[in-house]
Structure formats: structure tokens, C-alpha cells
Amino acid sequence: MPLGLALFPVLVLIVLLAADVIAFGEDSSYGANQIAMLLAAFVSGCIGMARGLKWNVISEAIAKSVSQTSEALLILLLIGALSGAWLVAGIIPAFIHYGLQIMEPGIFLFAACLICAVLSLATGSSWGTVGTVGVALIGIGTALGLNLGWVAGAIISGAYFGDKMSPLSDTTNIAPAVAGTDLFTHIRYMTYTTVPSLSIALIVFLIAGFGGGASDAPFNESFAQGYGEAVMNTFHIHAGLFIAPIAVIVLIARKVAAAPALFIGILLSVVTAIVFQPDVIRSVSGIAADQGSYALASFTASIQAMALDTAIVTGNALADELLTSRGMHGMLNTVWLILCAMVFGAVMQATGMLARITSAILHGVNTTFGLVARTTGTCLAFNILASDQYLAIVVPGNMLKDAYAKQGLAPENLSRTLEDTGTVTSVLIPWNTCGVAQSGILGISTWTYLPYCIFNLVSPLMTLVVAFVGFRIRKLPGNAS
User: What is the average pLDDT across 387-415?
Assistant: First the structure.
């Protein structure tokens, strides 16, 4: 197959995705991009069938591709339920409340990155972290008189650490599913590049915080106090609320499968809400004490929080903006996006187009470093050209996984590289859906925060350094050197 013909569906996709971003902005991932991927898949399928490929071959490839993501999609739905349960239980408000207590001007950037890292690790959502505590931190940074590029860079660096490392994250589940390894092997293998990258970022933020005049700026305590008072008046905040997240962490550490661990976390969070947050339960359910039993209110509020949109009203504008969740319903768009991305990848693979593009990309590559470098470049190119984080993981993953196997490299080498580049660089591209969304949420242009997203800039370089020196490059059984 001519290379130009193999690239044609990709070019169609790039044009459609670019048009989506122009027409719909940050809303392009809420339907427009899905249609673009299906149209590009249709173009690829038509070319394949015109060249003699049978539809049943394409159909079987789609079914196989989608089935590979079944567990990841289940986990995504459970993540949505968990976020809602954590909200009504007071767990997320407690995370934010205690995090704000440690804010000091000199360590603000360091603390902001660390808080966002912890919260995103706990929730698995960079978008959720930026859209909740990130918004609050931007306000505090403004009160401190800090350069907002630095503040946004610290927030995004921490948020995308959790997006990479949390077993609750969609990309953390998609990358190993595409590469052919399991979730926890993938996470453990990422620590060799991700922990050093975050450490470098934290050191840079600490130096910038003390050297950039932050320690001399006046701290507006009323900003944090307003949120804190609103939360304390609405929730019963205490250490006991962290039983559920600690239990999830312990289960994961003991290698319990992600879906059962999440389900247990959801149940514990619901119990936490029922026991410690009766006023919130009544408020969310809409069932006052004189209108129905507490058992009925608990059941109604729990289902509402896990499945549908939930908003906690405190009377404080900042708190009300932060204390919202869309539950399992909020994950459906991500599920839709992933399914469409997998369909596109499957059709491209069934028609032989991925194989043709891959052969061009890998021409002349005969070393581990060369393969990792080409993977890094391909992920970055898809983030720039295709404007979508999921495509930057799914398509290169499908294109290159056979090449890793041929070189005797374990699939976790591929899954780690996909995340080290595909996940973290998406937010640095102004026209990528992640870049558009985070810029809109924070009210700061992508070009303004890009130079200060230290973790996101260091991660791709770290994966290249590790490959170059040959550190922790795992081989397939029988290929160990």
C-alpha cells in the first residue's frame, strides 16, 4: 500500500479535529471529535474494502479492539461513582480544606503542585483536580501576587502526575490495555520515570517560590477562610473521612484488582456519608426529616451521588463552584470518546494502514533507544496534529506494540512511553482538547503556562534518558540480556 494512501484517513482525521476545535472550542470532545473519528474510520474502511478487504474482517477487528478496553471502561464508570460518593461523604472537601491550611507564600508553588498531585492521585482526574482545587489555587496565587504562569504550571504538573499514576485514571487504564500489559505492572514500571520527573518539578517550584518574591507577598487569609468556613458549616470534617481513600490505597498496594478495589471504596464512602454527613444526605436527597425516613434519604442521596449530577450548596460562591460532581453520568462522554478512538485504531489496523505507517516510522530503527524515541515523537505528533490525548495513546500504541515484541521488549516499556509523552504533553498544545479545556478552566492561555509545566516538560525527556542509559528496560521472558 502506498504511504500516501495509508496516511489519507489520518489527514482526514486531523482536518476534522482541527475544524472541531475551531468550531466548538473546549466542547469539541463532547461529540464532535467522536464523529470525526468515526468518519475517519469510515474513510479507512472504504479504502480497505475498495482494495478487496471484507467487512467481516473489519468488524471482527473492531470487536476485538473494543473488548480490550472493557475493564478500563468499567473502571471509568466506577471512578464516576466514586467521585460522587467522595463528595457527599466530605472526602474531597476535606482534601481541599486541609490542603489550604498549609499554604504559605514561600512554599506556595511547591505545595500547590504537591496538593494537586495527591488529589489527582486519589481521584484519577487531572481535569477534576484543575477544575476544583486548581481554581481555588489560582485565586490564592492571585492574592499572593504570584506570576500566574508559575501557579498554573504547578497546578497542571501536580494534576498530570496523578493522571499518569492513579489506577483511577482513564489514561492509566487505556495505555496498558493498548500495549498489552496489566494495570499495576504499568503503574509500578512508570515510577522509574515519573517519580524523578515530579521530584525535579517540586525542586524547581520550591526554588522559584523562595526566589521569585512569593515569600514577600501579603497573604489574603480571608480567601481561604471563606471556603473553610463554608465547608465546616456544611460537612463534618475530621480524619475519619479518610478511611475510604486509605482503604482503596491499601487494597491497591496489596494488588487487589482495580474494579473490586474501587467498588469497595465506593461502598465505604457511601457508609461514611450516611454515618458522618446526615445534613448533606438530607440536602442531596431533597427529603426533609418530616418528609421521609433517613433510610430513604440515604438511599436516594447515595444513588444520586454515584449516578447523576450532584451539587452541594454552602452559600459560599467559591465552595459551591468546587463542590460538584457528575457521578457515573459524567464519565459517559469519556467512554464514548474512547470507544470511537478504538474503532478508528481498529479499522486502520485491519486495513493494513497502521502497519504501513509503522514501517515508515520504524525504518532504520534497530535499538531500544531508537524505538522509544520514535514512540515519543509519534505520541507528540498525534497530540499536535490530531488534537486529542486518547488518539495520542491509542493509535501509536496499536502501531508500535508489535515492534516492541519483535525487539524482545516487555509491553510495559511501550505503555510507560505512551504515558510519559501522550498523556502529559496534551495539555501543552493550545489546540488540543486538553490544552483548550485547562486554559479555559484556569483562565490562563496555554502559551502563558506552557514554560512552567515542569513535570509535563521533563517527563518525555526522562523516558528518553532512561532508554538511552538502558535503566530498567524490561525484556520479554527468554530475551533478558
Answer: 83
* Residue 311 parent element (H or E): strand 310-311
Determine how many CB atoms are found less than 10 A away from the CB of residue 136: 23
Q: What are phi and psi of 324, to 5 degrees?
A: -135, 155
Paired strand residues for 324 = 311
| CA atoms of 358 and 403, how far apart (whole Å) | 9
Grid cell, residue 315, equals 452559600
Closest C-alpha to 374, from 338, 409, 337: 409
> How long a stretch of residues is the chain?
481
Beta strands in 184-312 (DSSP E): 310-311
- How far does CA 88 lie from the centroid of its chain? 22
Model confidence band, residue 103 (pLDDT cutoffs 50, 70, 90): low
Burial class (CB in 10 A: 0-12, 13-18, 19+), 48: buried
Helix, strand or coil, per DSSP, at residue 475 = strand
d(C-alpha 381, C-alpha 390), whole Å: 13
Domain ranges of the chain: 3-65+332-469
* Mean predicted confidence (pLDDT) in 41-66: 88
How many C-beta neighbours within 10 Å does residue 108 have?
27
Residue 474: other Cβ atoms inside 10 A: 16
Closest listed residue to residue 96, CA positions, set 106, 105, 86, 85: 86
Among 205-209, 274-278, 429-433, the least confident range: 429-433
CA 100 to chain centroid, in Å, comes to: 23
What predicted TM-score, i.e. pTM, was given to this entire model? 0.69
Give the Cα separation of 463 and 458 in Å (integer).
Answer: 9
pLDDT in tens, 321-380: 667 777 888 778 777 877 887 788 788 878 888 778 777 877 777 788 888 988 898 888
Per the prediction, the chain carries an average pLDDT of 81
Please tell me the distance from the alpha carbon of residue 138 to that of residue 132, in angstroms, as a whole number.
10
With residues binned 3-state (H G I as helix, E B as strand, rest as coil), the percentages for the chain, rounded to 5, are: 80, 0, 20
Q: Give me the sign of the Cα torsion angle 360, 34, 436, 423.
A: negative
Give me 26's grid cell: 473546549
Sign of the Cα pseudo-torsion (181, 186, 190, 191, in order): negative
pLDDT in tens, 111-146: 889 888 987 887 777 876 787 677 767 767 776 677
List Cβ neighbours of 405 (8 Å cut-off, separation of 6 or more).
411, 476
> pLDDT category, 214, cuts 50, 70, 90?
very low
Q: Where are the beta strands (DSSP E) in 15-153?
A: none
Residue 432 is classified by DSSP as: S
Q: Which residues pair with 311 in a beta bridge?
A: 324
Would you tell me how many other CB atoms lie within 10 Å of the CB of residue 293?
10
Q: Which residues of 332-353 are buried (b: 16+ CB within 10 A; e: fewer)?
A: eebbebbbbbbbbbbbbbbbeb
